[in-house]
Every structure is written in C-alpha cells, then in structure tokens.
Amino acid sequence: MDSDKSKTFQESSDKTVNVKDKITDIKTDLLFQYCSMTISDSILIINELTPSNAKGIHFFNKNSFKYITSTGFMGKGPGEITVLGESRSSYNSKAIWVDDYGKMVSWKFPIDSILSNENFIPTEKLKMNKDSFQVKSVFINDSITIGRSVIPTSYHSMDISTTKLNNYTYKIEEYGYIYPDLKGRESYSSFDLSTKNEIYTTCFSYVDLITICDLKGNLRYNIYGPQWNPKETKGIQFYGVVKTYKNYIIASYIGDKHVVFTDEGGRVDIAPSKLLVFDINGNYVKTIEVGYEFSEFCIDEENNRVIAYFDNRINPLGYFSLDI
Hints:
Oligomer: single chain
Structural class: mainly beta
CATH topology of the domain at 31-128: Lipocalin
Strand content: over 45%
Order of helices and strands: EEEEEEEEEEHEEEEEEEEEEEEEEEEEE
Radius of gyration: 19 Å
CATH architecture of the domain at 31-128: Beta Barrel
CATH class of the domain at 31-128: Mainly Beta
Distance between the termini: 30 Å
Number of strands: 28
Largest sheet: 5 strands, mixed
Shape: globular
C-alpha cells in the first residue's frame, strides 16, 4: 500500500448535514420506475431502464423541470431499442449516444433532431464488442471514451474493468491503473470522469474502495473506507452512483446490507440514503444524509443542486440544493 497515494476516512457527525426536509418535488405526469439520469446543456435526460412507455427517453428543462419531449421508441424494428441502457453526451453535447444491450449497439440521437421531430428514429450507430463493452463511459474527445466495461468470464459471471474505446475503429483496450485482484463481484463499480479536473473516479459496489486516476490512467489516490476488505463481505453493499461536482467527488453510499428479508419471507432491496463528499485529492469533506432511499442521481452544477430518483417517497423525482 503506497502511503502517499492511500487515503482513509471515517464519517463524522460534525461533518454531517441532513437535507430530508429540504427536498423539492419535481412534478410530472409521466410514470416510470428505475431510471438513469444525465444532463446535457440545459436538458435533464431520463432513461427508463424498465420502460413502461412507448418511448423510453424523456427530456426535461433542467432549470424549470418542464417536460419537453420523449424519444427512443421501444421495439425490435429498425432504429428501435430493445434493451435500453444509459445515455451519454457526445463530446460537443450536440447529441446523445444511447446504449441498446439487446442489439448490442449505441444509437446516436442528435439533440436538434429530437427536438424538431417527435417521431425521430436513429440510423447512425456504433457496434458493441460482446467480449468487452462499456457500460459507464465519458467522451474525452470526438472519438475516444474512457469508462468501465463488462468483460464476460462465463455465461453467468463477469469482471468490470477500466477501458479506452475508439468509437469509430471499435478498438477497445484495458486502460490505466486497475486495483489488483478485484475480480467478479468485487470489481463491480460505478464511474465518472471530469475533463475539467483531468481525473476519473471508480467507486466499488462490494468493497469499500474508491480509486482516483488522472486521464493518462495513473493512480492518484486509493480511498479506503472504514470497512475496507479486498474480499466481498457477503450481503454488504458500499458505493452506488458517483459524480464529479466542481472540485468535489460525490458518491451515494450504503455501507450496510442491501437486501433484508422480512419475517414472512419477503425480500426488501435497500438503496443508498446518503452521499459522501470528497475533494479531488481524496480527502473526506462531509456526509449528506438525504433521509430517503434513492437509486439514481445527477448533479446540475449550474444551479448547484442534486436531482434524484427516490425509491421510497410518494413523489419519486425531487431535488435539493448543494452547499459545500
């Protein structure tokens, strides 16, 4: 363990704030469940990961939360999406690339085309490599994405690893520092990249670890949590979604059982209910107790607020201000 690149932390009550009573509802007539979120310019983009509507991608004005339009027809026809994944902005933010894990492609949706044509069907696509395909990634220029890839190891198992992908030649390769010997579920993780801060961050789901690297792939810091163990602690989940905000890294966190069983034999899945905040040098800054469980969030840096999908609120969409 390189002490110069190793950080440890303990949460502190005097560095904890509670925002439960400061959440503002985002009201919409759209009904959907588990989703992913991203922001592109002034648009909040929500992808239904278990679509219940004819279109699975919904646009809102991120400032007013007014509904704009929906896109991404679900189906098996040309340009339709069979298994909807996440959206990521192109390098110039003029389009989104939408993952389709059924057809193993990413579809290009130009923003202007979506806004001008409610029946837009994409035709341009990028192929996914079935032996290694990115599930969390960010463009660092017009053609290259860095992110976390699924690498199947058998019909029922996989590793998750950092990769660099040329989206036009389809060349994909493992990239940069990878924490030693984290395989299978221990490698499961979330990812974010900041071109402004020239870092990318990996937060692990089943071991209490964050890694921060520069964009050349060099390790900057390993952040070891209070329950760090290189082997999975059965039933315990740590980090969920991670985002970079200004000069901070913000990650959802459980640090406890993610599934509990009732006396009647029922199963209850537990989502994170707090955010941990670190600076980009790996130092613990504060804990934000949200007070409700949430499975997804994104950050509107311009308006200094967190937008979240809550699992146990009457209104599942809401936001609260960030004060760091």
